[in-house]
Amino acid sequence: MDKVLLSLGHGYSARALARRLMPQGWHVIGTTRSAEKAAELTAEGVEALVWPGNALAPVLARATHLLSSIAPDEQGDPVLRLARDQIAAAGHLRWVGYLSTTGVYGDHHGGWVDEATPLTPATARGKARGTAEAEWQALAQEAGLPLHIFRLAGIYGPGRGPFAKVRAGTARRIVKPGQVFSRIHVADIAQVLEASMAHLNPGAIYNLCDDDPAPPEEIIAHAAELLGLPLPPEEDFATAEMSPMARSFYAESKRVRNDRIKDELGIRLLYPSYREGLAALLAEETA
């Protein structure tokens, strides 16, 4: 097979990519940690591999492209901890992609960042991602791998929209003055990854986000308007009851630039703002 993608941690974003590639004749091998998830992937036409647990070397030898979506842990990047030498020896790979996060930029008090902005992560998750990026870059330099890093903003898409909570009456508009987030529809992640595979630029880093950073309460309000339901209650961030994880997302505020994916990869976003994205999600749900 001429084009074989080995997708490590074949989750939400990678599955969207596979749905674009497989109709074009690509063969996709996806790793997952459970036999139950492996059965789901098989039903989608993906060659599933439970890993860790089974040998990676045979599928790595067949792959022409490698994508890692696996998040770092307290010890660093688990993929490189388990398979660094095998990946380093895979000199036949035409393209290697690593999915990171815009959290590596840290807090910029609502200011703009781009791929050249120094990394100053403030959260534990952001610091771990920055460390993992450096590990992958060091490996790529050492082994000559064609590494491309993708820094993803907040991901939404089918099954990950705000409508269910708004309908259930459990949505809240958490207000923190000056807070803005960038976000990206999963279909746009998939088209950027595909475009990168067609326009190789080893060492490149790309921000994946839409054109319209916005306060989180604005998205909830728009979802309610689309559904014709009352606006969910507004709550002050300072006094709102939130899990530590949810609260940590508000520790950083920034606007992320996406010029590079347009200028270098020729991307025209399918969903340039949350308005188009939410409208499409609602249309899919009602269909």
The class by helix and strand makeup works out as: alpha/beta
In which range does the helix fraction lie?
A: 25-40%
* Rg calculated over all Cα atoms: 19 Å
Biggest sheet overview: 7 strands, parallel
**From N to C, what is the helix and strand string?**
EHEHEHEHEEHEEHEEHEHEHEHH
Number of helices: 11
CATH topology group of the domain at 4-156 and 183-209 and 255-270: Rossmann fold
Assign an overall shape.
Answer: globular
GO molecular function, one term: 4-phosphoerythronate dehydrogenase activity
Organism: Acidimangrovimonas pyrenivorans
Keywords: NAD, Oxidoreductase
Protein name: SDR family oxidoreductase
Please specify the SSE layout and strand pairing.
Layout: E1 4-8, H1 12-21, E2 27-32, H2 35-43, E3 47-50, H3 57-62, E4 65-68, H4 78-88, E5 95-101, E6 112-113, H5 124-143, E7 147-152, E8 154-156, H6 163-168, E9 173-175, E10 183-185, H7 186-198, E11 205-208, H8 216-227, E12 234-236, H9 244-249, E13 255-256, H10 259-265, H11 274-286
Parallel strand pairs: 1-2, 1-4, 2-3, 4-5, 5-7, 6-13, 7-11, 8-10, 9-12
Helix pairs in contact: 1-7, 8-11
Account of the 3D structure:
By secondary structure, the protein is an alpha/beta fold. It has a domain at 4-156 and 183-209 and 255-270: Rossmann fold, CATH 3.40.50. 39% of the residues lie in helices and 18% in strands. The protein has 11 helices and 13 strands. It has helices at residues 12-21, 35-43, 57-62, 78-88, 124-143, 163-168, 186-198, 216-227, 244-249, 259-265, 274-286, and strands spanning 4-8, 27-32, 47-50, 65-68, 95-101, 112-113, 147-152, 154-156, 173-175, 183-185, 205-208, 234-236, 255-256. Helix 4 (78-88) links the parallel strand 4 (65-68) and strand 5 (95-101). Helix 1 (12-21) packs across helix 7 and helix 8 (216-227) packs parallel to helix 11 (274-286). The two termini are 36 Å apart.
